[in-house]
Amino acid sequence: MTPQMIFDIEPDELGIFLDEVNEHLQAMESGILELEEVTDPDTVNRVFRAAHTIKALAGTVGHHKMQELTHTMETIFDAMRQDKLISNPEISDQLLSTLDLLQLFRDEIVNQEMSDIDISEQLAGLRAILDDTGVPIAASSASSAKSNGNRTAQSITVILSEAAQAAAAKQLQAGKKLFAAVATVKKDGFAPAARLAQAAMAMMDAGEIIHQKPTMDDLAEAKHDFKIEFVVATEKEKDAVSALLADVVDLDTHAVEPFVPEGVAATPPVASEPEKASEPKPKAKPKAKPKVKPKSGGVSHPDLAIEKTVRIGVERLDALMNLVGELVTDRNRLLQIESALLNAHGKDGPITDLTEMNGHLGRVVDQLQEEVMHARMLPIGNTFNKMPRLVRDVSRAAGKQVSLVIEGEDTELDRSLIEFIGDPIIHLLRNSVDHGIEPPDVREKLGKNPTGTVMLTATHEEGHIVITVKDDGAGIDPEKVKAAAVRRGLITKDEAAQLDDEEAVDLIFRPNLSTAEKVTDISGRGVGMDVVRANIERLSGSVIVTSKVGVGTTFRITLPLTLAIVQTMLVSMHNIAYAIPLSTIIESLYYADVSVTSVKGSQVIHWRDSVLPLIDLREFFIHPRMNGAHKTDGDKTAIVTVAWGKQRAGLVVDKILGKQDIVVKSLNPIMGELPGISGGTILGDGSIALIIDIPGLIGAAMQARRQGATV
């Protein structure tokens, strides 16, 4: 049984602790990789500060192994700051393996369970880096990160703006006392910005703050020099104001002194000696009676900004999105009621009012939906930032030189998609490095740079996010892919001969297909690319590969911005509504306006200078209501042309009902997997519409045709 560890951290502080540790671990990882390429003073300082902060956090909670490792890493980075050490791949290997240990120790703090990891070998490896630098490793102590109680600072210097000076003078005239106060925290203390913010709230309890530096906005962004200063107008005595600061946990020093604005003579209320209780306080004139201030301490001066951000749980955001979805359903219901009333009674007075109300409600619901969606968005950089380490490790294992270029890391995506997109990107990057980029000597013979380039980009395009993985490697040889597919029994020689280059390259997404000549730890087992496509299509996305031999390969992933609420086109078959995602539709045609022909027993039409295969959804989704022969209104029968990746098809439907935003509902697992169906939704009249899964539909229809069925 794993022994339990008790760390010196409260449950409500664990989230803050993890946020800080994760941020600094990521900063160290990216910085170490950058320093391997070029020595940059700013990068060195960044990784030094990150190691220093993690050391302090580890010492605060009492994880001594974590503290000792980061202390030694800090010493290495300090040697780099002093130009006594220059990073290289071997040093980076040692530092990155230490980061892996730190992540394990971080998890120990979360789980309150300790492992039996011995860090002596890792410490020896780190110290060996410093052997030739002459930099000593100072002793590390957990107590250095603990607060030793509040100490009193000796002097306070405060510079006020003109507006703050005027406000201070006005408070003096109103009979208030003015005090300057300063508080500091240790640089290696836990959550310094939070402690300084607590000092600010203590001063709000004292009275009205005339001046504060840094502001609350600055503290929210961790912009501070571990010190905060105030000028506060109050009716309290100096000792009472000082006591409020003394009650703030983990302040290093604090001080409170009487304050007189420049150009204003000192008055009894701000004399340096505290007033005795027996002496009457000077009263202000009636005209200058001070305003009553709320106990919470409002901010009414130009030097102090109000906090503009608030933390909110993911569960609450999900609940908000569900409620917005219900509003969308109710709005659609109201629109149907309005339409029915218009058809029955015309534009009577109350019905006109209902129309206006529906219009306003629709705009409000649309805006609310957009705001909640934006609140759920996260930068995809959170995922992209983990990839440089992956590419470095894979390229070194494969004996290749690879440079990863990342663009568009600020592009935002729904958090529900970010959770699942990481694995497909990892597979594609590993493939690009192992299969795409050639060894350095081969690239030199081909006249290429010995260092290959892999680009990872993200952009917003027409309501979608597009992620691209591109390399300048050898490209994918269609003939090799066809040969591998035949060898693995995935297709016959005759089928391979009929494939063009694009179709041949697309075979790499088939299960159990690999063109690798030997199996390695990285690839060669035929597992990965089929999983990539399956995972992306599960997210209602698509992946397209384009390649040119000797030039390189590009994988293009297209994803919706969110999966919760989808724009669709409602169509009808057998008087049953189905929803087709609008993002997959190219255009709609009337069946009567096109010439339908047959190729190998399957219906096709000539469309945009190409041949478009037709899928008759009236036959694909067979329903008891058909009662044998199916009769349709030829004037309303339509063809909805859809695209998924490189595939195009025309879906034959009874009629088109119109566009509508729908709330996606998953189907009960008891139904199993339904070919061509991805979920359902509740329409405004309470009926259920099934959502058509375009990639699944096209795949099932093509398979049925290969087996000789008519669809």
Which helices and strands occur, and which strands form pairs?
Blueprint: H1 11-37, H2 41-61, H3 64-81, H4 89-111, H5 120-130, E1 151-152, H6 162-173, E2 177-184, H7 192-206, E3 208-213, H8 216-220, E4 227-234, H9 238-246, E5 253-258, H10 314-345, H11 349-375, E6 377-379, H12 381-384, H13 387-397, E7 402-407, E8 412-414, H14 415-436, H15 440-445, E9 452-461, E10 464-471, H16 478-487, H17 493-498, H18 501-505, H19 529-538, E11 542-548, E12 552-560, E13 565-573, E14 576-581, E15 585-590, E16 596-599, E17 602-607, E18 610-616, H20 617-620, E19 638-644, E20 647-653, E21 655-663, E22 677-682, E23 688-692, H21 694-706
Parallel strand pairs: 1-5, 7-9, 14-23, 18-20
Antiparallel strand pairs: 2-4, 2-5, 3-4, 6-8, 9-10, 10-12, 11-12, 13-14, 13-21, 15-19, 16-17, 17-18, 19-20, 22-23
What would your notes on this structure say?
The chain has 711 residues and is of the alpha+beta class. The protein contains 21 helices and 23 strands. The strands form 5 sheets. It has a 6-stranded mixed sheet with strand order 15-19-20-18-17-16. Strands 1-5-2-4-3 form a 5-stranded mixed sheet, sandwiched between helices. Strands 7-9-10-12-11 form a 5-stranded mixed sheet. The model is unreliable at 141-154, 265-307 and 624-631 (pLDDT under 50).
What characteristics describe this protein?
single chain; 711 residues; alpha+beta; Four Helix Bundle (Hemerythrin (Met), subunit A); Alpha-Beta Plaits; Helix Hairpins; 5-stranded mixed beta sheet; 21 helices; 23 strands; flat
CATH level 1 name of the largest domain: Alpha Beta
Unreliable stretches: 141-154, 265-307, 624-631
CATH architecture of the largest domain: 2-Layer Sandwich
What's the total count of β strands? Answer: 23
- Major β-sheet strand ordering: 15-19-20-18-17-16
